[in-house]
Design goal:
Layout: E1 2-7, H1 12-15, H2 29-37, E2 46-49, H3 53-62, E3 67-70, H4 94-101, H5 114-134, E4 139-144, H6 146-156, E5 173-177, E6 190-195
Amino acid sequence: MEVLLIRHGKTAGNIAKRYIGMTDEPLCDEGIAHARLSGIDTGTASLYVSPLKRALETALIKFPNAQMTVCADLREMDFGDFEGRNAADMEHDDVYTKWVESNCMLRCPNGEQMDEFSDRICRAFDIIVRDAIDNGEERLVIVAHGGTIMSILGRYGKPEQHYYEWYVDNCCGYRAQLDESAWPTAPALIQCEKFETLY
């Protein structure tokens, strides 16, 4: 099965380098234009998408004929008290400094912890994959967030790489393959290739 993992287009918060995990921003004008210019696929019949506006809008632009299944657990990490702020805003915030020094592994105050976030994403992804296998799908498309993609590939991507090494820019993503027969006992995404345009 082919798997496509696609990050949403740019928002105003992305441009300002703000943490907008659960902040439900729409695409900005630049994000809309980039989503169109980076490839539109009229042939994909179905996809899975995060419930946040930026992902939904990107999916509608890039896959205009697809039936979308919204999966709440594909949403981005909840950055809690860091939401809507950037590093410059929190330059003198000791809690933020400790979080960054932990490689962002500590819990965000009033938000999620990295391990919990990744577990949430990967549980949702596993359910989606198993449904796709049961339905005989040959292609699985997900439109979500940078953290979503890094969580999935950080756990299942081969050859193994650290979470942050799977980073992708807005409207970019990864193509990968999975072996349906091996997934229940040895889940893996192989032949992972980064792409900037759909075609």
